[in-house]
Design goal:
Number of strands: 17
InterPro entries: PfkB_dom (IPR011611), Ribokinase-like (IPR029056)
Order of helices and strands: EEEHEHEEEEEEHEHEHEEHEEEHHH
Helix content: 25-40%
Keywords: Kinase, Transferase
Pfam families: PfkB (PF00294)
Strand content: 25-35%
GO molecular function: kinase activity
Protein name: Carbohydrate kinase family protein
Strand order of the largest sheet: 5-4-1-8-11-12-15-16-17
Structural class: alpha/beta
Distance between the termini: 49 Å
Radius of gyration: 19 Å
């Protein structure tokens, strides 16, 4: 039997237009666009292209939907240029490629204008022929995938059905969400029992568990993250739950002690943008999990991936080869607040 290797990622495929604006205008008034940047967006390309630019040598593949338009051409060209297998990316005749306009003000605050486009069509049927030798299957973002977010009489949701099928085909399974206000546990919790890895931020974990992880005063103590991690593991996740925040990240594993890892210290001058930082963090966890790294090294490396991401305006240009990132990690200093 061929040993499984590599990462197969599926879900949202977007083109991000990142606009740095002079200020946020009152309704009806004008603000100047001072810089504009175009890049890939969405869970699947951001994770895969980050891993490709790390030059890990892992086989990488993508599943998703794009429109039959220039933006779709752009995303497919990026996947080809990074040697990501995209034979399972389908083109829609009646939907545009998903896109997001990201407006960033001088204080770093971001506002997103999003069009889901062809991502709304991705469903379980798109995976009927997907049975590769990759080790990990990663799906994101739930709550932006209309068909997969629908209810399912047997599994609870279509995404839970898909993840169950992919586990049964021999993949280790991973999931990420999009941060969204409101009640969405019924759309997410059914999927958790079919996961090996869950990588989400503190606001998403707070919504799923009801445990307060951030207030107006700041991030909660690690003990609160530990409680949230254990609550999520109790939903049936088989290996790891990682909850990340700007200040640090908590990891929980079955039958092992959890751990809080503070983020690395960066000066304000080093931070150019934060688009895709969560995906870069997720890419780090997926690579470390694929390689069987212990939890502490996994969290440190994920923080390193996020730090490199913060040095660029878009989701990809900060990524560097693995060896360079590991050298930087060896001398990085924790940002203890």
């Amino acid at each position: 039997m061929t040993a499984r290797s590599g990462i197969l990622a599926a879900g949202t495929l977007l083109v991000d237009y990142v606009q740095r604006i002079s200020h946020w205008p009152a309704q009806g008034w004008l603000a100047e666009i001072q810089h504009s940047d175009k890049g890939s967006g969405g869970a699947a390309p951001n994770v895969l292209l980050t891993l490709a630019r790390m030059e890990t040598g892992l086989p990488l593949a993508c599943v998703g939907c794009v429109g039959n338009d220039g933006e779709g051409d752009y995303l497919l060209h990026l996947l080809d240029a990074h040697q990501v297998d995209r034979r399972f990316v389908q083109r829609s005749a009646d939907r545009i490629t998903g896109m997001t306009q990201v407006m960033t003000t001088p204080d770093g605050q971001r506002t997103f204008f999003h069009a889901r486009g062809a991502n709304t069509q991705l469903d379980v049927a798109h995976f009927s022929e997907v049975n590769t030798d990759h080790r990990i299957f990663h799906l994101g973002y739930l709550l932006l995938l209309d068909e997969l977010d629908r209810a399912d009489a047997e599994y609870g949701t279509r995404s839970a059905r898909l993840l169950a099928q992919m586990q049964q085909r021999g993949y280790l399974t991973s999931l990420d969400l999009v941060s969204r206000a409101g009640e969405y546990r019924t759309q997410v919790l059914p999927a958790l029992r079919w996961l090996d890895f869950l990588v989400i931020n503190e606001l998403e974990a707070q919504s799923l568990t009801g445990i307060t992880l951030r207030t107006k005063q700041g991030v909660s103590p690690p003990a609160a993250f530990a409680a949230a991690g254990e609550a999520l593991l109790a939903q049936g996740i088989r290996q790891r739950v990682v909850i990340h925040a700007p200040e640090g990240a908590w990891g929980s594993e079955r039958q092992r002690d959890g751990q809080w890892q503070p983020a690395w210290r960066l000066s304000s001058e080093e931070i150019v943008g934060s688009v895709g930082a969560g995906d870069a963090f997720c890419a780090g966890i997926l690579y470390a999990s694929h390689e069987g790294w212990p939890l502490d090294d996994s969290l440190k490396f994920a923080h390193t991936c996020a730090c490199f991401n913060l040095r660029a305006a878009n989701a990809l240009d900060g990524a560097r080869p693995l060896a360079e990132m590991q050298r930087w990690m060896a001398q990085a200093i924790c940002d203890v607040r």
